[in-house]
C-alpha cells in the first residue's frame, strides 16, 4: 500500500494560470443550475489550494460551495486564501475527504472536480452515487489530464523503472493510469441517465524560464517520487538531475519559451429530471 503523496501548494500554484484555463473552459459548458431562486449548493472534489473552487463563486455568487480534499497542506492553503463569505453573499468552506469514499451528504446542484480524479483509481465506480446525490437537473462535471503517454510522463515512468531507481523507489515512482477515454466517460454517464457531453483538448502551453516542464511536474506527477525521497535530499537531487536531462531533450526551449502540449479530458453530465 502506497502512502499518499505530500502536496506543495506553493509549487502547484506556480502555474496557476495554465492550470485554471481548462477549469474555465469546463465551467463554460455547465448549464444553468436547477436551484432557481435559492442559493446553489456546490461540491468541488479534490479542490487543492482552492483557487479554482473560488472561481465557482464568480459564476454562482450566492452559492454555498464546499471544497473537499485529502491533502492537509492543500486544505490549509485553501482555508487561508479562500474560506468564508464570498463577495456575492455566498459561502466557501473546505473539508477533508477521500474522493474514493466520498458520497454526497446532502443534495447538490453541482458536483465538480478539476484535475483530481486521475489520483482516484475507482472514480468511475463513484459516478452512480454522485449523480444520485444531485438534485434533478443538477450537473456533475470533471476534467482529468489525458497526457499519461506524453514524454513528460513516459520518461518519468521509464526512469523509475531503471535498476537504480526501481530498487530505491519500488512501485512508488510508477504512476499508473487511472483515467478512461472520453468516449468511455460519455457512455457511462449517459447510461446513468444523464444528458452527457465529453471531449478532449490539447493545450499548447508556452512555458517560460529554465526547465519549465520539470517545474510543472514538480507540482503534480512528481509528487509521489518527491514524497518517497523526502528523507534523502541527495537521492532526490540525483533523480531530479537525471529527469531534468531527459526533459531538456524532449522539450527543447525555443526563442519564445518551451512548448509543453497537454491533453485534457472533460465530461459534463446533467442529471435528467
Ligand atoms: C492537481 S491537484 C488539483 C487541485 C484543484 N482541483 C485545481 O484544479 O487546481 C490534485 C488534487 O487532488 C487531491 N487528491 C488526490 N487524491 C485525492 C483523493 N483520494 N481524495 C481527495 N482529494 C484527492 C490532491 O490532494 C490535490 O489537491
UniProtKB/TrEMBL annotation:
Pfam families: Methyltransf_25. GO terms for cellular component: cytoplasm. One of its GO terms (molecular function) is trans-aconitate 2-methyltransferase activity. One of its GO terms (biological process) is methylation. It catalyses: trans-aconitate + S-adenosyl-L-methionine = (E)-3-(methoxycarbonyl)pent-2-enedioate + S-adenosyl-L-homocysteine. Its EC number is 2.1.1.144. Its main location: cytoplasm. It is found in: Cytoplasm. Residues 42-138 form the Methyltransferase domain. Keywords: Cytoplasm, Methyltransferase, S-adenosyl-L-methionine, Transferase. InterPro entries: Methyltransf_25, SAM-dependent_MTases_sf, Trans-aconitate_MeTrfase, Trans_acon_MeTrfase_C. Catalyzes the S-adenosylmethionine monomethyl esterification of trans-aconitate. Belongs to the methyltransferase superfamily. Tam family. This is Trans-aconitate 2-methyltransferase. It comes from Streptomyces genisteinicus. The gene is tam.
Amino acid at each position: 500500500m502506497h502512502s499518499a503523496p505530500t502536496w506543495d501548494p506553493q509549487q502547484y500554484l506556480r502555474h496557476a494560470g495554465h492550470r485554471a484555463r481548462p477549469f474555465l473552459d469546463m465551467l463554460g459548458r455547465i448549464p444553468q443550475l436547477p436551484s432557481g431562486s435559492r442559493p446553489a449548493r456546490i461540491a468541488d472534489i479534490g479542490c487543492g489550494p482552492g483557487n479554482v473552487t473560488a472561481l465557482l463563486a464568480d459564476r454562482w455568487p450566492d452559492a454555498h460551495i464546499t471544497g473537499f480534499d485529502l491533502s492537509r497542506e492543500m486544505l490549509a492553503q485553501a482555508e487561508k486564501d479562500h474560506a468564508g463569505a464570498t463577495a456575492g453573499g455566498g459561502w466557501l468552506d473546505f473539508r477533508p475527504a477521500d474522493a474514493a469514499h466520498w458520497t454526497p451528504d446532502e443534495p447538490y446542484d453541482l458536483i465538480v472536480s478539476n484535475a483530481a480524479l486521475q489520483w482516484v483509481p475507482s472514480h468511475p465506480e463513484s459516478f452512480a452515487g454522485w449523480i444520485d446525490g444531485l438534485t434533478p437537473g443538477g450537473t456533475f462535471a470533471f476534467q482529468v489530464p489525458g497526457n499519461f503517454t506524453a514524454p513528460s510522463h513516459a520518461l518519468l515512468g521509464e526512469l523509475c523503472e531503471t535498476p537504480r531507481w526501481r530498487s530505491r523507489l519500488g512501485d512508488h515512482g510508477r504512476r499508473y493510469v487511472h483515467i478512461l477515454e472520453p468516449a468511455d466517460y460519455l457512455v457511462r454517464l449517459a447510461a446513468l441517465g444523464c444528458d452527457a457531453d465529453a471531449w478532449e483538448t490539447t493545450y499548447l502551453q508556452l512555458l517560460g524560464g529554465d526547465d519549465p516542464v520539470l517545474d510543472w511536474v514538480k507540482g503534480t506527477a512528481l509528487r509521489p517520487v518527491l514524497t518517497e525521497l523526502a528523507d534523502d535530499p541527495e537521492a532526490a537531487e540525483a533523480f531530479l538531475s537525471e529527469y531534468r536531462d531527459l526533459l531538456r531533450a524532449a522539450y527543447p526551449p525555443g526563442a519564445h519559451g518551451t512548448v509543453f502540449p497537454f491533453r485534457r479530458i472533460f465530461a459534463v453530465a446533467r442529471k435528467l429530471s
